[in-house]
């Protein structure tokens, strides 16, 4: 060690400090990912002959999952789900954050804390618990939604929220919205509170209206927060599993079978880990590609 | 020095973090351990019984110990297969009948012929042994069994002007009964459903639907064993489901647990379930139990009432070093004395002739079901059976909530099943 210069010693020290983090990421994330990619090129059916397990089959798992409409249906359901959840979430979260940001300034700090805690409640509830709660509320025969709507005279017969082919996906979307809205709100609200007052005061003196101030000051200041929050929301909802599985198990008639549910069914119902890994590989790479393009688009926007 | 200290602290923290895990207990001298994979020991309703039989078995077999490999019901199949892949397959595995073929073809289980006691082999009902046999070998031992039978609420029968001592025998009769029951309202003015046939998106619903197809004279394979589902009896069965749905006699898209809930709160007059499903009803409303009646599978104009075998079975892990002891445990668990004790927590039928009569005497609910074994149809042993069951639930959903014509659905069902069970 004595022959190393001070700067080199520091570099080695920093590298040594990073070893535990690399070990954890490597064993818990990279290793399973690599194993999954390898599996996607192998025959690995838990209910098939042992001797064929692990046999290299090239792209046959990929061809098998592309055959038929299972994968395209799951992809369609996933995209619809992500689009509606993320866009509605963004719209409502931004609206709530803006109104609270302007209205909250007069409130005492303790009241602000209570309000923020209340808003965060759905987000801190574990997803499975949240799904179970909503499954009860959506229950057609004794669920609270049908009871309320019937009492108010808005419907004449109970709705099959989670069993009707046209209502099942919107019901899961509503649940996801309720679950995830607080997180996006919190991020945007925090972003709003960091914007200095001076640009607004200058804009007011110049006679700028509310919309003009929002477009010219608020949005540019929020740009980075919006970019990160939207990306996180898209990724979270793209791989959403517990809500779908707990609420509908992918039914009725596969109308809520997204990519995660399809992967799970292939792996743990058909016990075909090869095909499940092929589906997972397709959508993991799709998602990584999307994240790269998304970041590039935002960055080029920033440069302009 | 400061950096070195930080590194040392980091190294010891990492060692602490990565050195977790459990040390395998050293087996006691002369003691053999049966590693028993089960969901029953985790469930509130059966936990007490499982601990009781463990201590009783260990007391009467001082050189044998039972070690629980406990998983929730929804995970046990996958976990056992993963354990098999890791070379850790348990010695004895509690399984559902529907998992049999998948477990056999996984290669992680062994036939039980050389392990089961002569008493068990002599007394087990032939139809049940046949259903769990493949290529002349017995791969599973029935612990408890049930067909999909009809549970009905005698109080609701009386309120609807029906005779509670005469439950329906066919689906057509049940339909007429259901119409009368559905005219009732509960005390809060809510609708009462007539006849519950589960169409939920889970394999057990598919097994129930297959039993309905059998009872309409249909099924999913023909006499030669080839997959064939586009038949008139199947179409009629699906049309029946569609009519039930249109007339709002069957809670749409419901799972068995939904039926149990509705039945418990007097909002469902009749429904198809396994015997032990009554535990779910009892957990919600024990007060309803005295008014519960049970009768065998419903028939139709084409066929007598038929059902798949619904059973909790015991399978032997491949390469088990305690296969003889595991066989003795199977014998113990299926003995008259132990099943009588189990009956106090769970209604079921017994596979062994020596226990069967005793159980029907002890539990009045079982009396009308004593000859029900003859209604059981042996289901094909295909590893993808559970996926095929899900195709049946898809078909049932298509004619009910999907409002697609039954003749169209049987064609789709036929091609999907041919793909799934090829």
- Averaged pLDDT of chain A: 89
The largest beta-sheet of chain A arranges its strands as 1-2
Distance between the termini of chain A: 48 Å
- SS field, number of helical segments of chain B: 17
How would you name the CATH homologous superfamily of the largest domain in chain B? Periplasmic binding protein-like II
Cα separation of the termini of chain B? 69 Å
The topology string of helices and strands of chain A comes to: HEEHHHHHHHHHHH
Which strand-content bin applies to the residues of chain A?
under 5%
Q: Tell me the helix content of chain A.
A: over 70%
Number of strands of chain A: 2
Main pleated sheet of chain B = 6 strands, mixed
* Integer count of domains of chain A: 1
Helix content of chain B: 40-55%
State the CATH class of the largest domain in chain B: Alpha Beta
CATH architecture annotation name of the largest domain in chain B: 3-Layer(aba) Sandwich
Topology:
The complex is a heterodimer of chains A (304) and B (422).
Chain A (H helix, E strand, L loop, with lengths): L5 H34 L2 E2 L11 E2 L3 H7 L3 H34 L5 H16 L2 H12 L5 H8 L16 H26 L4 H8 L4 H29 L3 H6 L11 H10 L4 H31 L1
Antiparallel strand pairs in A: 1-2
Chain B lengths: L1 H17 L13 E7 L5 H17 L3 E7 L2 H13 L6 E5 L3 H7 L2 E2 L7 H6 L2 H6 L1 E2 L2 E2 L2 E6 L2 E5 H6 L11 H11 L11 E4 L6 H13 L16 H15 L9 H9 L3 E6 L4 H7 L7 E4 L11 E2 L1 E8 L5 H11 L2 H8 L9 H10 L13 E2 L7 H15 L6 H15 L2
Parallel strand pairs in B: 1-2, 1-3, 9-10, 12-14
Antiparallel strand pairs in B: 3-13, 4-13, 5-6, 7-13, 8-10, 8-11
Would you mind describing this structure in some detail?
The complex is a heterodimer of chains A (304) and B (422). By secondary structure, chain A is mostly helical. In chain A, 73% of the residues lie in helices and 1% in strands. Chain A contains twelve helices and two strands. Chain A has a two-stranded antiparallel sheet with strand order 1-2. In chain A, helix 2 packs across helix 12, helix 9 packs antiparallel against helix 12 and helix 11 packs antiparallel against helix 12. Chain A starts with 5 loop residues before the first helix and ends with a helix. With 422 residues, chain B is of the alpha/beta class. Chain B has two domains: 174 residues, D-Maltodextrin-Binding Protein, domain 2; 196 residues, D-Maltodextrin-Binding Protein, domain 2 (3-Layer(aba) Sandwich), CATH 3.40.190. Chain B has 17 helices and 14 strands. The longest helix of chain B is centred in the N-terminal third of the chain and has 17 residues. The radius of gyration of chain B is 24 Å and the shape is globular. Chain B starts with a helix and ends with a helix. The mean pLDDT of chain B is 92. Chains A and B meet through helix 1 of A and helix 1, helix 3, helix 4, helix 11 and helix 16 of B.
